């Protein structure tokens, strides 16, 4: 039996906490798919192949450009003794005309009854570094919509934030909508980041609409990141040089 792909034409919000205010909200496109299933996809989307849009295992589950997809997730779950996962879904921005950049993608790990029991937040910075955060309850009970799960920040992401403090994650993912909230706190500063949007079947029409409304895909995302960095530099936010990336691939 084949599975379909969902399209989230959503919104992302980032709001800086602390003495230098900066906030923005942009529209953004994500896809959600079963990472281990045979997929039925529109003609303009390709899984591990060339197309106007697509999603490749090489870009996820391991180092950028050398990913192993869901097989990597299975290894991570086994290493950290997370059991009972029957389905692995990937929520990520798609590749557009051969280019992809995902500041954060999410591996959603579900039991056979569809309960969400673990999430791997796969964070990639603009320097090409990647670190993933394995998020779950210690007793591996399902993650509820109002649960707040914590992770210590390990990797340098923005040069205007230090590598200290921690993340608070909240996930509200239903058959109709995606809602993800990340609250990064360090002292009196930090950032609140959100991803929200409706889930709809991915189609050639929705792909073309997205490409026309948000041309260049992840190239546009990179341009917007650098535009916000310029605004922070003008506001005289402290710039921090990139430290060495973490030696571990995954933390929790």
Architecture blueprint of SSEs:
Blueprint: E1 6-17, E2 23-34, E3 45-47, E4 53-55, H1 70-79, E5 87-92, E6 95-96, E7 104-110, E8 116-124, E9 130-135, E10 149-152, E11 166-173, E12 177-186, E13 189-201, H2 204-213, H3 218-234, E14 250-251
Parallel strand pairs: 3-4, 9-14
Antiparallel strand pairs: 1-2, 1-13, 2-5, 4-6, 5-7, 7-8, 8-9, 10-11, 11-12, 12-13
Can you offer a commentary on this structure?
By secondary structure, the protein is mainly beta. 15% of the residues lie in helices and 38% in strands. The protein contains three helices and 14 strands. It has helices at 70-79, 204-213, 218-234, and strands at residues 6-17, 23-34, 45-47, 53-55, 87-92, 95-96, 104-110, 116-124, 130-135, 149-152, 166-173, 177-186, 189-201, 250-251. It has an eleven-stranded mixed beta sheet, with helices on one face. Strand 12 (177-186) and strand 13 form a beta hairpin. The model has no long low-confidence stretch (mean pLDDT 94).
Quick synopsis:
With 252 residues, the protein is mainly beta.
